[in-house]
Amino acid sequence: VYRAVAKADGKPSPFTTPAEITAAALARTDPVAQEALEIFVTCLGRTAGDLALVFMSRGGVFLTGGIAQKIVPALKQGNFRAAFEDKAPHSELMRTMPVYVITHPLAALLGLAAYARNPSLFGVQTAGRRWQA
């Protein structure tokens, strides 16, 4: 996205890694990086909103992974939420769906440990699987 924005705007693209681009965007030191992050956040909001609507995620949408953790400030700026809710005629419903960013670095392992401690709480069907709870 960053290189495409730079090329479209006729501007240089000095950064080569996602970490550099994200840092520059969040620090507001590079307008191309900022625009690229805004586009990414908007697309993420649209996609998350589409999936939330398809699956009627009234309990909320949980964003996980390294990217979401690193761009929390950008997610809070409004583009994400606006794109998430822009689902006419369902915008009112979308406003009621919360979005969370899981920031714990070992969230997946914590979930697996919770499952291992008490698998019956998770409703996982194990019939026909090679592994059992």
Can you describe this structure?
The mean pLDDT is 94. The chain has a single domain (2-119), classed as Hexokinase, domain 1. The longest helix has 25 residues, at 31-55. It is mainly alpha-helical. The chain contains 8 helices and 2 strands. 19% of the residues are buried. Strands 1-2 form a two-stranded parallel ribbon.
TL;DR?
With 133 residues, the chain is mainly alpha-helical. The protein has eight helices and two strands; from the N terminus they run αααβααααβα. The chain has a two-stranded parallel sheet.
Spatial sequence of strands, sheet with the most strands: 1-2
Q: What Rg do the Cα atoms give?
A: 19 Å
Largest sheet: 2 strands, parallel
Average pLDDT metric: 94
- What structural category arises from helix and sheet content? mainly alpha
Please report the number of helical segments: 8
Which band does the percent of strand residues land in? Answer: under 5%
Helix proportion: 55-70%
Give the SSE order as H and E letters. Answer: HHHEHHHHEH
